[in-house]
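Progress against Task 2.4 (sequence-to-structure conversion) is shown through the following example record, which the project officer requested during the mid-term review.
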Amino acid sequence: MICVVMHEQRLDLQSAVDFVGELCKQSIDRFNENSKLLPSWGHKIDKDVAVYVRGLADWIVGSLHWSFESTRYFQNSGLEVKKTRIVTLLPRRKLKDHPINQSLGEAPNDVVTGENASASV
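Structure tokens generated for the chain above:
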């Protein structure tokens, strides 16, 4: 998503991360506000809906915790990234003829990563 936002909005890496972070925050805020606006269908159904809505919230929160605790996104640095909100990027590398570069119309040597760079999430 970051790469697409960088391309479509013509943003640098940090601005794209900030943009996507704000989209996520707005989505969570909207979910929380809308969950307060649910109508009543009677005690039994209201209870079932509350369990379902809570499950949706738990799913998102669990996914966030997992992303920091697993090695999938941040290798062994997930807990530090969670604490500091700073991601150290991988060294810049050439992605000659990589499909993402072709689909975004980027030059083959243009990549999102930068040597010794970091981005705040």
